[in-house]
Amino acid sequence: MSIQPDILRQAFPILGRQVNNQPLVYLDNAATTHKPTAVIDRLRQYYESENSNIHRAAHLLSQQATEAHEQARSSVQSFINARQQHEVIFTRGTTEALNLVAFSFCKKFVRAGDEILISAMEHHSNIVPWQIACQEHQAVLKIIPMNEKGDLQMDEYRDMLGSKTRLVSVTHVSNALGTINPVKEIIDLAHQQNVPVLIDGAQAVPHMPVDVQDLDCDFYCFSGHKMYGPMGVGILYGKEEWLAKMPPYQSGGEMIKEVSFRKTTYNELPFKFEAGTPNVADILGMEAAIRFIRELGYAPVAEHENDLLQYAIENLKKLDNVRFIGTPAKRAGVVSFIFNDIHPYDTGTILDKMGIAVRTGHHCAQPIMDFYQVPGTVRISLAVYNTRQEIDVLINALKTVREMFG
Q1: CA contacts within 13 A on the Cβ side of 375
Q2: Domain coverage including residue 44
Q3: Are 179 and 331 in contact (CB under 8 A)?
Q4: Which sequence positions are flagged as catalytic?
Q5: pLDDT tens digit sequence for 365-374
Q6: In a designed cystine with 227, which of 184, 206, 234, 336 is the match (CB 3.0 to 4.6 A)?
Q7: In what order do the strands lie in the sheet containing 359-361?
Q8: From CA 220, how far away is CA 237, in angstroms rounded?
């Protein structure tokens, strides 16, 4: 079944609004996706008829909310094919998941002189936590290089793995370039050295199926709001063998088994890593988003988004003085570019006046901008509800930008 975006768009209320007296053309999906009615309705349903704190009481509302919350965990387990339900940890998003592993794993397993490997195309959230952890534990942060096209240099990566490597943390899909990294190969090579691997899947899960058992990754994380779900909720998957050994990241309610002034014992997985009252409503909203994606099917989504991607690239090439930032061999629905003689912020500001939402700047990936020696880029990022007609509107608007600057 192919995607019919004109019909699908009716499920997204926000797409009917106007911006600056123009129909909204939303091409900033790598930053956050819009929410279908099914997700919005699930949030409303929880607060109108189920609202209660979970795991805390014997009354009916709490029991129902607890059951719904744990059913959502089961849905995530099935979605990514985790082996065990307790390997699914609810977080506030990818950033918190990355910080959790950086803090907890390094506290247990990293010592002075050890090495952590990340790639040259990481989002800041997969750079800064490791810098802090390495500084705290006197470890060394090493960077897997990429080439001019925006592909990782795998030969260099092989040579970097060694007896001092304690963990590899890389993005599945680059948020700034759209590069789809060969994560299965990255994981296989690391495992040959008995090195665990964490994958940042924030930009992958909206576009492609993820099977954590097939990948054999040790950790995988993603965010609800980039996959048509609510903000403020995400997932950390971790193999039980690692999570069981890692100390808690935060402390408080729920993550404890017994507390006395003399000693505290910690709860079992997954609750050991879920301190405090969880974001139940948004967890249920994320489950609705998972259901929405599964009903669409990844194959038609990929076909539709790839068609839009190629159509956008072909038409951008026809514009004068355009430079593409990254031309990776495999990419998801992201294109970064600049006009050589126009600041990206100026381009984005003028597009906004015409109702077109794109992202401009460094995209929380400043090392990538330094690599290409640009102040930032104009980034268009696609979702299942985008259309060829919207790409046409963008191209015509960029022609106007071109004319304004001569």
Answers
A1: 9
A2: 40-294
A3: yes
A4: 364
A5: 999 999 999 9
A6: 206
A7: 322-324, 334-339, 377-381, 359-361
A8: 5
